[in-house]
Amino acid sequence: MDKGASLVEISPVAADLDLRELKEVVTKITSSKTMYYLNPQATPIFHHIDAILKPIYTSSKVDQLRLLQSLSTGGNVRSMLLVHALFYGHNTVVDYLLRHFTYTTTSPLDLAGAYGRHDMFAFIKRVRPSMKATSNALDYAAGNGHLNMVWHLHSTGHT
């Protein structure tokens, strides 16, 4: 994609179709009473979300994500984008989301702990040094069996 191209030139029809499908899938997940974000790989439909988002992330990086975000008004979609990006290690997407949106229900650092993602935890601390993990990070990591992450959180004072 030409760096000077406007966001409107990024196949809005295809993005709109992907967005509608994404919203439907996210609604299915978030309408359940389970805390899908603590162990997303255990939610079978999460893999469907990956199939929708992976091509968007790789096609034109953040520009495509901006288009997706501009079409999205629901916090559930933004939250799912963060969960997905953290889980799969999409640094560019995490950075964009943290710069443009506030997440108040669960700390992104807690989610990185839940997924055992040392790399994402370190990345978030590097780009958002003021962000804090809660004691939930340790609980979530232990609950998902990420003992190396538990050790890391404990040894760095995130208890």
From TrEMBL:
Q: Which InterPro entries match?
A: Ankyrin_rpt-contain_sf
Xref: SUPFAM superfamilies: Ankyrin repeat (SSF48403)
Source superkingdom: Eukaryota
Q: What is this protein called?
A: Aste57867_11989 protein
Organism in which the protein naturally occurs: Aphanomyces stellatus
